[in-house]
Design a protein that fits this description.
Number of strands of chain A: 9
Shape of chain A: elongated
Number of helices of chain A: 13
Oligomer: homodimer
CATH superfamily of the largest domain in chain A: NAD(P)-binding Rossmann-like Domain
Order of helices and strands of chain A: EHEHEHEHEHEEHEHEHHHHHH
CATH class of the largest domain in chain A: Alpha Beta
Chain lengths: 297, 297
């Protein structure tokens, strides 16, 4: 089985590396060739377009930035569908729109190509350690075929339903994070304003009903003045936008999500686009006329 | 050392029981005597008022409902301070107002009585198993004296700072929970509306950045249609009100907390005052014109 890989950013590079390490023949494409160099040195072949990747392989994976990129990669003039053959499979791992995922699946069906949406959570560390959660939407038959490959990339690989369900599940994941991040930043500001030592507070609140991954991981980073990305604010805003657009389509009122997105927009306004999601503290500080915490020395 | 215990509700009963089991002589008072009966059968003595408890003991613990109850118990005509002697100690474990905690500490200081605020988290199970987190505000000297008693009631006992700091820390704990609960309910509604199976979704989202105590414990209860209390909605609303009042005093804008409280007010409007905090789903369902999920058979 010949594998194609489109998108060699921080996530894609690590993930593709696992397939190369497992001995698969992999052909890669990326908008900028430089970021694929490391994979080419490990024997990945280079292709000049998504269509060329599709021409030379049987299963194509993609993980890029935005839904518009996904659309171009698959449906553009030099896209995967311009060259893919019946019986081939495409797996888009970008966090993208459920509606686009359904559209790709339909296009695929029309030309005998199996298409899965399979976005991931777990970040750069999960990609590096192959411990990602992979949320899959599509046909059970197609899922069964590529499952051994997905198992090389993540430890929690679950078929969530028909095309689009992987994207929907990823958006559920993002919605869950939003409110926790808002209250985490508010709680931290409250603690400081009330004259508490926020590190000592953590001892009291981390073991019970207030416990969360964000509290354990993001709260200490904020205290250290470390707003470096894990996951970019601008990408998180993209995901919240996707979730709100789907919610609107579903006629669903989600006021907490809407507020969280507005607060993250304020992080953009305060220069935090390429900082990590914990930079939400900038919005709460701005809102309260508090000077941003400088990074720890 | 003779111990007094005021407030024998679900929490107080279990906690007081641990001190009796450890062999301490305990005198109890409760507004309704019936709920103290179980402790009296275990050799607790009964007193007819908080003042009578104070008269006959050296350290008085209290855990009641609202700040107004705390005020009456300590400062009322038959209150603890009407009968306490210099050198005695009072420990209020009610989740109450930081300002009231400071006032009690001042009143205590004026008559030679050490006062701690020491609210808890961990719920009825934590009270029963003595695994509570106890967040303490007050003088280090007073804390040192009663610490061995607090260690009988909880496993995480931390002095957070001067009088009021225990209450502030508990409010931080509650603020942290609010946003997580809002996004949990919104994520669940989104999952259902998108046609996902919310139990299968949990497999994909519970191990990563969306993980939280609430997701692990409250999400399954909501799916089961189980809105029974753990912790009453009306008490959670009291805590959010205390936090917002303190935030106002501190000139702190906390929009997430404000929204969460408004949504919980809607749970009240939908008959959920004496349900558990997971009944927040009623507000989101009402907001979206969705009929409440009936309890599982």
């Amino acid at each position: 089985m010949r594998i194609g890989w489109i998108g060699t950013g921080v996530m894609g590079r690590s993930m593709c590396g696992h397939l190369l390490a497992a001995g698969y023949a992999v052909t890669v494409f990326n908008r900028t060739k430089a970021s694929a160099q490391h994979l080419i040195e490990k024997n990945a072949a280079w292709a000049d377009s998504p269509a060329e990747v599709a021409e030379r392989t049987d299963v194509v994976f993609s993980i890029v930035g935005y839904p518009a990129d996904v659309e171009e990669i698959y449906l553009g003039p030099k896209g995967v569908f311009a060259a893919f053959r019946p019986g081939c499979t495409a797996v888009d791992m970008t966090t993208s729109s459920p509606s686009l995922a359904r559209r790709l699946a339909e296009e695929g069906q029309a030309c005998g190509v199996g298409v899965l949406d399979a976005p991931v959570s777990g970040g750069d560390i999960g990609a590096r350690n192959a411990t990602l959660s992979i949320m899959v939407g599509g046909e059970p038959e197609t899922f069964k075929q590529v499952r051994p490959l997905l198992d090389r990339l993540g430890k929690t690989v679950v078929l969530q339903g028909p095309a689009g369900s992987g994207q929907h599940t990823k958006l559920v994941n993002q919605i869950l994070i939003t409110g926790t991040m808002v209250s985490l930043c508010e709680a931290l500001l409250y603690a400081k304003s009330a004259g508490l030592d926020p590190r000592v507070v953590l001892q009291s609140v981390s073991g019970g009903a207030a416990a969360s991954w964000s509290l354990q991981n993001m709260y200490p980073r904020i205290l250290d003045g470390n707003l470096e990305p894990g996951f970019y604010v601008e990408h998180f805003i993209k995901d919240m936008g996707l979730a709100l657009a789907e919610a609107e389509r579903l006629k669903l009122s989600l006021p907490g999500l809407a507020l969280a997105k507005q607060l993250y927009e304020s992080v953009l306004a305060n220069g935090g686009a390429r900082k990590g999601t914990q930079a939400l503290i900038l919005a709460l500080e701005a809102l309260n006329g508090i000077k941003p915490t400088p990074p720890a020395a």
